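Hi C.,

You asked whether I'd gotten around to modeling the 343-residue construct. I have! Everything is below, sequence then structure, no commentary in between.
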Amino acid sequence: MLITVTKSGSGFERIQDAIDSVPYDVAAVIQIGEGIFREKIFCEKKDITFIGEGIDKTVIDFDDCADQIMEDGSRRGTFRSYTAFFGGERVTVRNMTISNSAGDGRKVGQAIAVYADAERCLFENDKLTGHQDTLFLAPLPRTERQKGGFTGPGMYKERKLTRQYYKNCIITGDVDFIFGGSDAVFDDCDIVVNNREKESFESKKDDSATKLDKDQIDTKERFINGYVTAGCGLSDGLGFVFRNCSVRGEKGCAKGSVFLGRPWREQAKAVFLNCTMDETIAKERFSGWGGITKDEPQTWYGEYGTMVDGKSADLSGKNPWVRDIDDKTAASISQRADEIAGI
């Protein structure tokens, strides 16, 4: 089944109308023309493919955010803030930009661009942009830390592992902007952390004691531009694997102000294999939750073959619970990653 969505009126004019026209069990391809589509879309199908005209040519954008107050007086929350929700059994998204333009999370809260919840997800040649919590890779953790924290499409779903593959994508954000419990592989992607220092933002300082802000960032420690990952997978899973990616801070980001991850839950896993990075990456490499040097012994964090300015990265300052990865371990992880890349 082939469907088109265009701004010219040839085919559907709204992406959501095109999605709604597809029976669940029918495999479909939705071709989306050039233009900015100001839509919040929800898709839950057996096998559906979205193909745009190219990054920055086909753009799906919305600006819902966690701190919005709903008609019933409730807070929207993180998991109802998405621009695009993809559920069901299999989804493929190619050649487009999906963004959440709500803005700085310190002002608006979390704001998801893509909520990826299909059993098999493939994103290729896409740009996913936002600030805090840009890309959520389902499933959610088993339990929430505060009542109503998971309000949204996955709140009552079985915590079923998803497998996700991202190829030649650009992903931007700042705090925890690639997060969730999926087994996910990122190949040849450009991961860019926003420069939050350039944003106009006033915060109250408490000089009397160490203080955690609403996002569990220790405001008594140095300024932090962001955390690339915040995983919540289980110890026997693969977690997040980045291979041959570029990981860097946006122009202007301070040296040492970006962390490769922090654990949303204790068994978080993230590995960076043969990636290039810049000097914005913190010497500790990964942070604890609620403090840079907080002990996180149950995590599985590490790097292998990282290059900075054409030289092997200096990992001597990494937190003690960050793993040392040898050739054999790197090969084993990459082999498991290849299985997901074949989805």
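If it helps when you're writing up: The chain has one domain: 68-97+109-197+210-341.

Thanks,
B.
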